[in-house]
Amino acid sequence: MDDKMVDEKIKKALIDGTDSALGLKEDVWNNIQNNLDKHNMKGEIALAKKKRKSLFVTIASTAAVIAIVFAVSTEPGRAAAQKIKDLFLPEKDIVQELEGQEEDTHVNLNESEMGYIIYVDESRYKMEKLDGRDRIAFKEELDDNIPDVYMDIEQVRDSTPEELATQIEEELKADFEVVRNEGIVDEPLRAIRLYARDGDEWNSKVVKYYLVNNGKGGTFVIKEHFFYEASEGHGVRFDNMLKDFKIIELAK
Q1: E-strand spans in the chain?
Q2: The CA-based dihedral angle spanning residues 187, 10, 110, 56, taken in that order and rounded to the nearest 10 degrees
C-alpha cells in the first residue's frame, strides 16, 4: 500500500472514527503498540475484546484505531496515531500561543451529559451547570466595570445551525454596535461563527458564537463572552479549548 493510500485511510479514520475510539484507555493503546513491536507490522494485530468502562465513556468500537495501527510505519501515520492517543488521556499538557508568547498549560478532560467532551484549563476556569447549559467560567472575580468571562455550551435539538444563525444575528444587532456573521469556519472547529462587539473600549463586551451541527438535526450552541482587551487572552484560550471539542455517544 503506497503512502498516498495510507494517508487517505488515516484521514478517513480520523474524520469518521475518532469519536468511536474516544473511550479507549491507555492500556488498550499499549496493547496495540506491543503488538506492533511483536509482529513488526506483518502479523495480525490482536486487540483486547473485553469491554470496560473508561473514566468518561464506554468502549464502543476499535475500528478507527485498527485502521490507523496498520499505517503507523509512515510519518503521517505516526502523527495521526499520536493525535488519537492524546484523545484517550484524562489530562494532558499543551502548548498554546498567547499574545505572541508560548505557554505550557495543563488541561483536564470533562464529559458533559449533553454528549460532548472538552479539555478545560482548570487552574483558571471552572465548569458548572446552569439551567440546561454548561458554563466554563473564569475563576477570578472581576471589577464591576468589566464584562464577565465565560463560555456557555448548550444543545438545541430541534434547530439547525443555519436556522439559529439567522435568529441569533438579529438578536445581536439589537444590542451590539458591531455584528458579523462569518459563515462556516474550520478553526477552532467546524461551525458557523458569529461575532459581536459593543464598542472599541478596552472593556467593551465581546460575544462569539459557534454553531455546531450535532449530526441529529440539532445544534450545539457555544457562546464565548469576554471583554475586548481579553481577545488575545481569554478569547484565544476558549478557542484552544474548542479545538478538542468532540461530540460523543454517552455510555448507557
Answers
A1: 91-98, 101-112, 116-120, 125-130, 133-138, 150-156, 178-185, 191-197, 205-213, 219-227, 246-247
A2: 160
What is the distance between the alpha carbons of residues 68 and 198, in angstroms, rounded to a whole number? Answer: 47
pLDDT for 236 beyond 60: yes
- Distance in angstroms (rounded) separating the CA atoms of residues 80 and 10: 7
The predicted-structure confidence for 145-176, as pLDDT tens digits, reads as follows 999 999 999 999 999 999 999 999 999 999 99
- Distance from C-alpha of 123 to C-alpha of 96, rounded to nearest angstrom: 15
Q: What is the fold, at CATH topology level, of the domain defined by 110-247?
A: Protein Transport Mog1p; Chain A (3.40.1000)
246 vs 15: CA distance, rounded Å:
11
Q: What is the pTM of this model?
A: 0.70
Q: How far is CA 190 from the centre of its chain?
A: 10
Residue pointed to by grid coordinates 447549559 = 133
Spans of all domains in the chain: 3-87, 110-247
Q: Is the peptide bond before 188 cis (omega within 30 degrees of 0)?
A: yes
